[in-house]
Amino acid sequence: MNIIKNVIKFNMTQSKKLTGRELYDAIGRPKTIVAPMVDHSELAWRILSRRYGAALCYTPMFNAKLFATQEKYRDSMWTKGLDGNEKLDRPLVVQFCANDPDYLLTAARFIEDQCDAVDINLGCPQGIARKGRYGAFLMDDWELIHKLIRNLHDNLKIPVTAKIRIYDDYEKSLEYAKMVLDAGAQFITIHGRTREMKGQKTGLANWKILKYLRDNLPKDQVFFANGNILYPSDLKRCEEQIECDAVMSAER
To answer: Entry's InterPro entries (predicted)?
Structure first.
């Protein structure tokens, strides 16, 4: 009887959904992260990136509604047995863009057994995101963002994370980040650029505001910094200046 009780207790422990710091420890405390990039972050790129030092990779952004409702789209974006393969492609975070909590949850359930966490894209500043009402253009609707995150947090077997951009205002950026965390995000990745900083107006990411956010969010909060990583030396410089847990790098 004691053996049965111990087995049940072990299984319950194993199935417990990890929280932020627990998840970060479980995936090896990665310091170097390859960002989700459309048309870049597919499996081959992730394998290559890990070979050259990436400790954590994200998929490209998937459209949650299409992923949930169109098998052809889903199969074109995700190959069962390869994407998320425990020997080839982990640790892995799968990123979705969405503006509907139900479609997002349906999409995430297709892959929740094949990745370590699901991330919500709240940072895409491109015109297609404006047209589709997702990414950084949800920054005008905090209530919807909260619902998207909370729905995954309450109903998925794995943790939910979020990648956001900043506002020009330090305090508004802080309140925004706190809201995202309150909704249930276990990691927060903050890109130190505003929604308007894109294309020819990209400019430099603001590490000062990232440092401010790091200092004013809970100390045990897993915090990834993103922006201005042009050279290998920038990784250490960013980590030291911001005191973040890890640095995420994309194109710049």
So the answer is: Aldolase_TIM, DUS-like_FMN-bd, tRNA_hU_synthase_CS
* Sign of the alpha-carbon dihedral angle for 29, 35, 36, 41: negative
pLDDT at position 200 is 58
CATH architecture of 17-249: Alpha-Beta Barrel (3.20)
| Side chain identity at residue 62, one-letter code | F
- Torsion over CA of 189, 190, 194 and 196, rounded to 10 degrees? -20
Distance from C-alpha of 41 to C-alpha of 35, rounded to nearest angstrom: 8
Hunting for tokens 């650029």 — which residue is that? 193
d(CA 65, CA 77): 13
The region that residue 17 occupies, defined by phi over 0 for left and psi between -120 and 50 for alpha, beta otherwise, is beta
Q: Report the DSSP beta bridge partners of residue 191.
A: 165, 226
Residue 247: in which H helix or E strand, if any?
A: strand 246-249
The pairing of strands 92-97 and 56-63 is parallel
The residue length of the chain stands at 252
Q: At 85, is the secondary structure helix, strand, or coil?
A: coil
pTM for this predicted structure: 0.91
In this prediction, residues 189-209 reach a mean pLDDT of: 88
Strand partners, 116: none
The single residue of 57, 97, 115, 124 carrying the catalytic annotation is 124
Nearest alpha-carbon partner for 225 in 245, 200, 203, 247: 247
Question: Taking the domains of the chain in order of start, what are their residue ranges?
Answer: 17-249
